[in-house]
């Protein structure tokens, strides 16, 4: 049989259609391949940690501080509202109401107190510790009839400062019992009215029946630096608990 010679197709210039392509020969689009090559999606870009948002001047914007919720609790008239007002860097939110004769025999602020108002919901203030940490302070009402609010106020808190009047230790038992049952780290702060304590700290620890693992400090609710030092003890206690829970 005579051999068959394939036609000599012209050489295709770079970028031009092939001379024996369907488009060149029939004027239509090239037929789709019977088995198209699988299309693989492009791999995702590598992870890069978020960076600070630049400001209009081009300098990185500082990250906002981490919010930490701290409770300031205790009995009636022990200095909770005063503590929040002394340390807060904003005008504190208070829910103070005038005490009336209807509260006689119900709300007892103590003989040394000149208190004429009482907290009926909560106190709120905040203080920035440093660039990375900001404390949000929630003061609880001290009367037993407002005890139903404590569970809501304690939700999300990392620790508490239980304020104590050394002359009225009986008023502190409900607050200490609450935080012991809740398992929330707390510090007992004895408010030194007029700079004096009715009992020394050792006797107060014994009377309150708190263990050695619970810090007991003396502070002045009217003095900003004194309240700051007490709150730093609360923060240290909360961080210590968080560290131990993470290791466990």
Automatic annotation (TrEMBL):
<dbReference type="InterPro" id="IPR027417">
    <property type="entry name" value="P-loop_NTPase"/>
</dbReference>
<protein>
    <recommendedName>
        <fullName>ATP/GTP-binding protein</fullName>
    </recommendedName>
</protein>
<dbReference type="InterPro" id="IPR004130">
    <property type="entry name" value="Gpn"/>
</dbReference>
<keyword id="KW-0378">Hydrolase</keyword>
<keyword id="KW-0547">Nucleotide-binding</keyword>
<keyword id="KW-0342">GTP-binding</keyword>
<comment type="similarity">
    <text>Belongs to the GPN-loop GTPase family.</text>
</comment>
<feature type="region of interest" description="Disordered">
    <location>
        <begin position="1"/>
        <end position="64"/>
    </location>
</feature>
<dbReference type="Pfam" id="PF03029">
    <property type="entry name" value="ATP_bind_1"/>
</dbReference>
<feature type="compositionally biased region" description="Pro residues">
    <location>
        <begin position="30"/>
        <end position="52"/>
    </location>
</feature>
<dbReference type="InterPro" id="IPR052705">
    <property type="entry name" value="Gliding_Motility_GTPase"/>
</dbReference>
């Amino acid at each position: 049989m005579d051999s068959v010679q394939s036609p000599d197709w012209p050489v295709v210039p770079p970028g031009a259609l092939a001379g024996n392509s369907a488009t060149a020969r029939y004027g239509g689009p090239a037929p789709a391949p019977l088995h198209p090559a699988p299309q693989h999606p492009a791999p995702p870009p590598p992870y890069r940690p978020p960076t600070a948002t630049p400001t209009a001047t081009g300098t990185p914007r500082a990250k906002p501080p981490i919010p930490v919720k701290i409770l300031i609790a205790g009995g009636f008239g022990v200095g909770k509202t005063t503590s929040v007002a002394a340390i807060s860097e904003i005008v504190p939110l208070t829910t103070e109401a005038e005490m009336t004769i209807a509260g006689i025999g119900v709300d007892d602020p103590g003989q040394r107190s000149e208190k004429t108002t009482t907290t009926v919901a909560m106190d709120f203030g905040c203080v920035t510790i440093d660039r990375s940490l900001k404390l949000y302070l929630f003061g609880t009402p001290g009367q037993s009839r407002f005890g139903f609010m404590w569970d809501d106020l304690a939700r999300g808190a990392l620790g508490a400062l239980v304020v104590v009047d050394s002359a009225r230790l009986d008023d502190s038992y409900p607050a200490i019992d609450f935080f012991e049952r809740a398992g929330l780290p707390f510090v007992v702060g004895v408010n030194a009215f007029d700079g004096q304590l009715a009992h020394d700290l050792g006797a107060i620890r014994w009377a309150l029946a708190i263990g050695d693992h619970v810090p007991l400090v003396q502070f002045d609710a009217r003095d900003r630096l004194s309240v700051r030092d007490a709150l730093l003890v609360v923060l240290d206690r909360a961080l210590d608990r968080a560290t131990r829970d993470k290791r466990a």
